[in-house]
Each structure stands twice: as structure tokens, then as C-alpha cells.
């Protein structure tokens, strides 16, 4: 069994590899050769343990991610087992890996749904996820300009400095949400907001929105007007979204949206569902996160670690097979 630490993942799992892994996970999930179990949470006064499970016949793996963002230490561990034998192949520390696979899902959705000529990106959210989300979009579209909005000037300035230094893309700090949205072709939203960040009526024809932060019922980044404005709403998993998408459940309750009309991204990628059909459509991708993304990422990291001689080999024989 191989154990791969966080600092090794940074080198072993570049964003380009993450995008490839996540797209394969979406496609295999749509093809019925990969399986996903929505997140389960064990809540305590000190924090919540989150478990995402999945399996892939294509990769011959089964496993799960367990993460516990406690008060003193954040623990993220992805466990990868051989599907046929049950042998534990490895454990990967998964904080940075999770951030990259989340960004990769946005990249895959943007490549599938955003206009090909998209060049201006609006960003809501300036943390680690926000930076990776931006880099993911830049990996699949020729972004030339970024308009970022947030509540803390210090964070906005640090975000601008990091982006301009690493990518050369021009970043403007927007004074209002309206200014950030004005002229944007793509909108990235990745926050912990519990109330909508802008009036959805401000969305313009042709825009594509990646809403990433609403992976719990008490989180909400967009309002009913934004859902109403969207010509096409796509989720990473309908089963997951039904349980925890704080952005869409109010629209379902209001009758603005029906789950039977919401495709998942894998369906769009494989042609089972319709994607963007005109330049003027507003498209919305809601990303809650899936365990199947984690096991595809974890399998890749373990194989990369083996090739590089990275990680620590731990002899674990386990229980003898039943006869």
C-alpha cells in the first residue's frame, strides 16, 4: 500500500491531468461503468466528517474520500482499493487534490457549455478554490480579462497580484457585483455564501455560469432570477444535487425547474443530453462534487507516485481470503 502526502500531490497532479481525469469520470459515470454515492455527513459540535464513495469498473477501483475540516487540523484522505480483490492500493492526502479536481470539473463544464470565443471572466470568490477555478477556465478558454468582486479589499488585491503574476491576465477589482458581471462571458462563483451574491436578472445572453460553492442546503450563491434566466441548467450529478444543492432546491420548490429536465454533465459530454445550442443561451453549471471524481484523481496520483518513486510503501497484508 502506498501513502502519498499532500506536498507530493502538488507535483504529481497538475491541473491538466486533473481535467483529463474528471472528464473520464463524468463520461464513465454516464456510460454506467462508474458509480457514485452522494456525500454523507456525521455532524458534531466540533465539526463534520464527510464521506464520498464511488467505484469504477473501467479503472477496477472502489474507494472513498473522507474529510474532516476540524478546528485545529484539516484532514482529507482518499482511499483506493482494487475492485476485484479488495486490496488496499493506497491512501492519498486529498486537500489540494480535491481543489484541483473541483476546478477540473469547472474546466470540463466550461469547455462543453461556454461560448468558444469567451474572453472575459467574472469571479466571485478569491480563496484557494477561486484561484484554481480561474486557472481551470483559462486552461480551456482564451481568457484575456478578469473582473473580480469580493467584500475584503486585502483579499481582492492579493488575488489580483497572484493572477497577474502567474498568468499575465489583466485583473480589474469591481466595485459592485453589477460591474463584475458587465461584459463577462463566463462567471465563476465559489464562496461559502448563504444568501445570493447578485441579482440574477443581471445575467446577459450568451453567458456561462459556474456555481461551485452551494454544496449544502444552507449555502446559496444565486437567486431564483438567475435560475429563471438560465436557458440550460446542468449539474454534475442529479442524485447529488437533489440532496444538497442549495441554489437549485428553492427553484424546484417554486416550480421553476424540474429534476426530470436537468441533465448531468456526463450526459452532455456523451451526447445523451443537449448542451448549448445557440450563442445567446445562458448556461448554468451547478457543481457539488462527486466521489467518482476523487477516486479517478486518487488512482492517477497513485500511479504517478509509483512511476516517480514518490510516497511511502506500507506493508499491509490485510485478512486472508475466505476459502
Element layout with pairings:
Layout: E1 2-4, H1 6-12, H2 15-31, E2 34-43, E3 48-56, E4 61-69, E5 74-82, E6 88-93, H3 95-113, E7 120-124, H4 128-140, E8 145-149, H5 153-167, E9 170-173, H6 177-181, E10 186-189, E11 208-211, H7 224-229, E12 232-235, H8 238-244, H9 249-253, H10 265-269, E13 283-286, H11 291-308, E14 312-313
Parallel strand pairs: 1-6, 7-8, 7-10, 8-9, 10-11, 11-13, 12-13
Antiparallel strand pairs: 1-14, 2-3, 3-4, 4-5, 5-6
Helix pairs in contact: 2-3, 2-11, 3-4, 3-11
Describe what this molecule looks like in 3D:
By secondary structure, the protein is α/β, with parallel strands linked by helices. The chain has eleven helices and 14 strands. Strands 2-3-4-5-6-1-14 form a seven-stranded mixed β-sheet. Strands 9-8-7-10-11-13-12 form a seven-stranded parallel β-sheet. A hairpin with a 5-residue loop joins strand 5 and strand 6. Helix 2 (15-31) crosses helix 11, helix 3 (95-113) packs parallel to helix 4 (128-140) and helix 3 (95-113) crosses helix 11. The longest helix has 19 residues, at 95-113. The protein starts with a strand and ends in a 10-residue tail after the last strand. 48% of the residues are buried.
Query: Helix fraction?
Result: 25-40%
Q: Estimate the mean pLDDT confidence.
A: 95
Number of helices: 11
> Helices and strands: which structural class?
alpha/beta
For the largest beta-sheet, the strand count, sense and barrel status come to: 7 strands, mixed
Topology as H/E string?
EHHEEEEEHEHEHEHEEHEHHHEHE
Strand content is: 15-25%
Could you say which overall geometry the principal axes of the C-alpha atoms support? Answer: globular
pLDDT < 50 stretches = none
Widest sheet: strand ordering: 2-3-4-5-6-1-14
What is the chains' assembly state?
A: single chain
Rg is 20 Å
- Record field, number of beta strands: 14
Distance between the amino and carboxyl termini? 24 Å
Amino acid at each position: 500500500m502506498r501513502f502519498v502526502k499532500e506536498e507530493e500531490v502538488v507535483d504529481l497532479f497538475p491541473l491538466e491531468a486533473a481535467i483529463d481525469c474528471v472528464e473520464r469520470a463524468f463520461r464513465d459515470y454516464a456510460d454506467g461503468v462508474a458509480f457514485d454515492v452522494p456525500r454523507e455527513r456525521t455532524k458534531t459540535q466540533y465539526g463534520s466528517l464527510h464521506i464520498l464513495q464511488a467505484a469504477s469498473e473501467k479503472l477496477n477501483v472502489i474507494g472513498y474520500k473522507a474529510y474532516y475540516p476540524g478546528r485545529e487540523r484539516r484532514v482529507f484522505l482518499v482511499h483506493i482499493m482494487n475492485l476485484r480483490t479488495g486490496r488496499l492500493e493506497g491512501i492519498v492526502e486529498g486537500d489540494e487534490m480535491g481543489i484541483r479536481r473541483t476546478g477540473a470539473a469547472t474546466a470540463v463544464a466550461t469547455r462543453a457549455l461556454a461560448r468558444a470565443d469567451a474572453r472575459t471572466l467574472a469571479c466571485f470568490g478569491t480563496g484557494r478554490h477561486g484561484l484554481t477555478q480561474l486557472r481551470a477556465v483559462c486552461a480551456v478558454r482564451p481568457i484575456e480579462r478578469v473582473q473580480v468582486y469580493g467584500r475584503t479589499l486585502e483579499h481582492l488585491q492579493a488575488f489580483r497580484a497572484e493572477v497577474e503574476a502567474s498568468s499575465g491576465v489583466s485583473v480589474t477589482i469591481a466595485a459592485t457585483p453589477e460591474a463584475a458581471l458587465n461584459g463577462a462571458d463566463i462567471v465563476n462563483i465559489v464562496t461559502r455564501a448563504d444568501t445570493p451574491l447578485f441579482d440574477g436578472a443581471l445575467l446577459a445572453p450568451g453567458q456561462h455560469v459556474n456555481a461551485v460553492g452551494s454544496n449544502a442546503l444552507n449555502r446559496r450563491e444565486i437567486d431564483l432570477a438567475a435560475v429563471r434566466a438560465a436557458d440550460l441548467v446542468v449539474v454534475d450529478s442529479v442524485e447529488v444535487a437533489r440532496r444538497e444543492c442549495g441554489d437549485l432546491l428553492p427553484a424546484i420548490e417554486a416550480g421553476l425547474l424540474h429534476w426530470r429536465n436537468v441533465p448531468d454533465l456526463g450526459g452532455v459530454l456523451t451526447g445523451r443530453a443537449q448542451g448549448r445550442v445557440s450563442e445567446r443561451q445562458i448556461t448554468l453549471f451547478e457543481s457539488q462534487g462527486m466521489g467518482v471524481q476523487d477516486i479517478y484523481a486518487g488512482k492517477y496520483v497513485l500511479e504517478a507516485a509509483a512511476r516517480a518513486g514518490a510516497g511511502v510503501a506500507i506493508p499491509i497484508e490485510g485478512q486472508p481470503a475466505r476459502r
